[in-house]
Amino acid sequence: MIDSPLPDSAAVREERWKAEARFFDEQSDKIHIAPIDPLTLARYRPPHRLRFNKEFRLHVLGGLQGKRVLDVGCGEGTNAILLAKLGGAVVGIDISPNSIEIAGQRGRVNGLGDRVQFLCSPLETAPLPPASFDIIWGEAILHHVIAELDTVMKKLAEVAKPGAIVLFSEPVNFNRTLRRIRFLIPVHTDATPDERPLEPAEMILLRAYVPDLRSRMFTLFGRLDRFLLPDYNYERSSLWRRAVSGAIATLDYMLLSLPGIRRLAGTAVLYGHIRHR
Asked: For residue 112, is pLDDT > 80?
């Protein structure tokens, strides 16, 4: 029997999945497996400081006790472990086998048992039960799947419970001039070939699935954190580094509340209630 060739769109999708898996498999080789840092866990318990991106997101979610959470593009499980430690029942999904293996080890090291589960699969074909999640969480994942964004959102709408909240933190580009300037600065970043920040066209698509979509902008001068915080580790940085980072976050929070400045943000927290399909 001769296998029939995949349709062009399916073949492109399969190749993208393979390329993404290879990229993140390589990245996961650098990960150290250890219990969650107590300082990190303490930081993300209430009360939250809204000037910091992840603390803002957790404030939006409120309490996680009794909530089922889908962590889309969970990687090595950093957020899934945190969300489970904060009371959620979490399913993490990612396309990278190595990342999922590490995430599973992290779950065991942190003694989470069945409060966190990990699944290696493209989201589009994942065997997730319909209408089963209260919260859809993702960090820097949608900008990897722009070509399939409509399909991805359709899948998320299927697995979300009625009234479920969707919350993503994504790189954004709402100012083309600033983007061109960024490319002139020789800063190394690990990136897959087809990723790019979300643009206004993607916001329109997202609103078709999240009618009450809201956004909170971050990362104006906060772009300097890559130079200020070793390994982006705020909790284990020195007092002066945390103080400077906090001052920058406060300045960003104020400036990015202004309509004319919002378009200069590098990151947006996008949230609302996904329309159940």
From this structure: yes
